[in-house]
């Protein structure tokens, strides 16, 4: 089951990945807390979901 991110969560993820492409443990835990996610969620899964959300966002912007 895929998690749907809110617009606020997507914006926070976009900013985080623009600032840092690899998150250190402390930053990853803080970001997970800010997003309401499990802090033990792996970076790769979070990055994959971020990439999916960006594609969906771009698709929606194209439609509108």
Automatic annotation (TrEMBL):
Q: Which Gene3D superfamilies match?
A: Homeodomain-like
Keyword DNA-binding annotated = yes
**Is Ribonucleoprotein among this UniProt entry's keywords?**
no
**Originating species:** Nicotiana attenuata
**Identification of the protein by name:** Homeobox-leucine zipper protein
**A GO term, aspect molecular function:** DNA-binding transcription factor activity, RNA polymerase II-specific
Q: Where is the Homeobox domain?
A: 3-41
- CDD domains, per the entry: homeodomain
> What does this gene product do?
Transcription factor.
Name the gene for this chain: ATHB-21_1
Q: Which family does it belong to?
A: Belongs to the HD-ZIP homeobox family. Class I subfamily.
List this protein's GO terms for biological process.
positive regulation of DNA-templated transcription
One Gene Ontology cellular component term attached to this UniProt record is: nucleus
**Compartments where located:** Nucleus
Which InterPro entries did the record assign? HD, HDZip_class_I_plant, Homeodomain-like_sf
What is the top-level taxon of the source organism? Answer: Eukaryota
Q: Which UniProt keywords apply?
A: DNA-binding, Homeobox, Nucleus, Transcription, Transcription regulation
């Amino acid at each position: 089951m895929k998690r749907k991110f809110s617009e606020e969560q997507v914006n926070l993820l976009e900013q985080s990945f623009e600032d840092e492409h690899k998150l250190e443990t402390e930053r990853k835990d803080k970001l997970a807390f800010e997003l309401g996610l499990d802090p033990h969620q792996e970076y790769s899964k979070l990055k994959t979901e971020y990439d999916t959300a960006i594609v969906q966002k771009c698709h929606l912007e194209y439609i509108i």
